[in-house]
Request: fold
Amino acid sequence: MTGQTTPRRQAIHRLLDGLRTDGGVHVVTGEPGCGRTAFLEYAAGSFRAGPVWHVRADPGRGAPPLSGLHTLLRAAGRTVRAAGDGTAGEALFDVLRAASGASPLLVCVDDAHLWDAASRAALGHAAARVRAAGVPAGLLLTVPGHRPVDRELAALPVLRLDPLAPGDAARVVDDVTGGAVDPGVREELVAAAEGNPALLLALIRRLSPAQLGGRRALPRPLADGEALGGVTGGCLTGVPPDRAGLLLTTAAAVRATGEPDADADLVRRAAGAGAVRPLPEVLVLTEGRLRFRSALLGRAVYAGAPPERRRAAHRALAACLTGTGADGVLALLHRSWTVTGPAPGLAAELATGAASVSPPGLRRRALTRAAELTADGAERAHRYAAAAAQALLAGHSPEALRLLDAARSRPVPASVRGGAELLRGAVLLADGPVDDARESFLLAAGLLAETDHEAAGTATLAAADAAWAAGDPASCLHALTDPVPASRPPAATPAEAPPTRTPAHAPATRPAAISAAPATDPSACADPGTEASGAGAVGRVGVGGALGGVAVSGSGGGRGGSGVGVSGGGASDGGVSERAVGGVEVSGSGGRGGFGAGVSGDGWAVGGDARGVALVRSGPLRDHRDGMRAVLLGRFDRAAGPLRRVVEHGLSGDDPEPLLRSASAALMLGDVTTARRAGARALAAARTLGCAALEPRALEYLAYAELRAGHHQLARTHAEEGLRTASRTGQRNTAAHHHAVLALAASIEGEREIVAEHVAAALRTARRHGLAQAATLAQWAAARADLGAGRPREAADRLGPLVRPGARRGHFAVWMLAVPCFVEATALAGRPEHAAPAVEDFALWAACGADPQAPAQLLRCRALLAAPDAADTLYLRALDRHEETAGDFERARTELLYGKWLRRRRRLREARNRLGEALMGFERCGAHLWAQQAAAESRAGGAAPGRPGTGELSRLTPQQLRIARRVAEGATNREVALSLSVSTRTVDYHLRNIFATLGVRSRVELVRLVGQAEKTGAQP
Reply:
């Protein structure tokens, strides 16, 4: 079935589930080729609850009034006298109500816009009456999305078929080709189709087996006028010639902006006098912006026009654009599309003009077009690589890789290749196998070694980040120990290429735990009260880290390393630099590192030395490297000073990369308040500058900071937004870590379905891309959910391989954080002897003072394994240590375990007090299943059951309560799923449980119940 991938089929089944119970009316629409007919056919074939009336409208012209209605009634075996006096709609409603009396009815009308006006009016009237009266009849009516919905149907609810997600489109390619497609070709097919099922299939059919297999070159452009015209069909039939010029001018203007719309006044002036007439129905005007109702139709208009007419449209648009800045760059772009061969002068103007605009998307298009017009191979590659940096900054990883492929398609100097490989590594680190990213970084280091040792050192540091993500601590430490050879004089002088902004930011390493470098001497650790008390986890003989230096304790987790990200901004303040090293300016945040993508001259380099190269010997970078290395070696006393200087440097400005580094260093120092402030400022700066690629990282820092502070619900909010931005910008590796945060948060709230969903998503990417840390965090979350559900044996089995020595041990920076859960699970499962070695490892970590929660957790672990005469004192000491830290969850866990211990020794009054404290602590932090455990233990100890007056909604889990409230606000299941970053299947599952728990049978009853609870205050 064309385009009906598993997600679409699931959507259909959810729709049909609603039709079976409450009925429903939907006008199904979408752009040409979106699969409306196939959607309707699949729905009709899947409906089993009752009869189906399925008709397709006759496209013939001049049909008599009510002919469409009679066609439907004949297909249903019904005869009704339908007069043309306006009563036909009520007659059709009576038929539908009678036909659905015994069982639900489904009516499917394909291409309802082709019916005569009287039939459409009758259908619209009957559908509105069915909807208002709650008749158990479903009506699905399809209409095209490239034109307005006819007025007779305009008041009905619209269901728009969205484009296929890239992953779903890739699966369609594999299904159709039997998997015989080269991965690079698959990516190009998916990108060219832009989620349109029919176009995707047309492009596949266009290619030979050799082209699909990557053995022969693909046609260029892949989606040409013939392919696009075949999908759009007769959508433009009947457009007058004078309107066709307006359509082409609009399409040309949209091509330059890269946005869905263009300035309407500009388009009308360029199109001439005829453009002032009423717009063709395929266009829509909104707030002075003109766009096609179907973006695919705009592509077809442009690709199908003769070349000379396209050039004329661009020439007219260029003539109407004056001024500098964005308008100047747009004018240059339009001029560039009027030439047919290399144009070095125009290419140089485009490259220089890119420095005057801020949006990375416009910079990318200008630099890409400049590369296409450049004859010199090295300069061409340089500009392609610069465009790739902007694509990466804008969050378009696949586009960045395609541009980098173009950059290395011809022999170029080693410095240019090295810069391109450094960028490629950055792309792969965010959205590819991290081992491949590491190899790209190492290749870049080798290529740049002869021309610039500083850039080579930066590539080495970036390789350390990839090694971190893959769980290779020895390589991390090696890169940090001596990442840069002795400096050589720069290849250019400041006079030749002046610095353009603030100093650039090279990737700095993250903390790591290493079993190859013992750090077991307690004297190597700072006092727990010192400021350097916030790095990640310590392994058996080393120190662990977290995301970008983010350390998470108790209820959190993290990851770390050096890295390559992206940073950028607008034009330079101090002049233009024609080149950085190979066109590459190295940048990085403290944790993830960064890749500079600010534009100056024709490319990039937003700071550094004369060549735009960030010097690792510079203050903030040196401080960050020294601090990270000290943390790696367990020398927190030596880490405090350098990391504090990193924090202060980042907070002194508004550049997102230094702010991210500041957040990273603050978390390692244990200064959560400053980390949250720096992370929030970095997020705001990234949004202001249009640096979409930085947003998921900033949200990731914020999420881990909130986990660190014990605010798991705030962490969940940041991670949900981070997951959406990571998915939108194509950063699957970052998305995997957001999934891990969401799994950790949900494991506290006791939502097993949510935990399982996020764990599965994190592991899916982690296993494909070698993300050892994300995998460990996800498995830890699953085990903690087992503990919350009262299944300690399963939790112990899951955690055992992660925390015990051996090849299966979890990521070196994370496994220690899971030790308290492992000890609790083994003790409750009756296997305490398995936990003793892990406790001694954990004691080394707690002695370093790098985790405020660790001392209390250690005492709790010892109490779980201690003899009865010692356990009592250990529990009390643990509770005393909890008073020194924030967060309810860890303290409530200790109270719960102590209460269980007291109850089993018949000290019931003390047990009830402890269990009551645990219950209140769990309720405060929304740990529903954990609260149930405390309540059950309390009842077993003789406490009165329940507490009156909490209201019906108090019986829901936190996630169920969120869903119930969103539904009460009128959100659809799809809207709820998008807002909570879960699947609609999970929302369906929770709604069924909500209905069962509250004893309601419909959404209407749920809305009423939630409204009453909100008014009376009887709510959690």
The first strand starts at residue 24 and ends at 29. The longest helix spans residues 414-431. The CA atoms of residues 262 and 909 lie 73 Å apart. The radius of gyration is 31 Å.
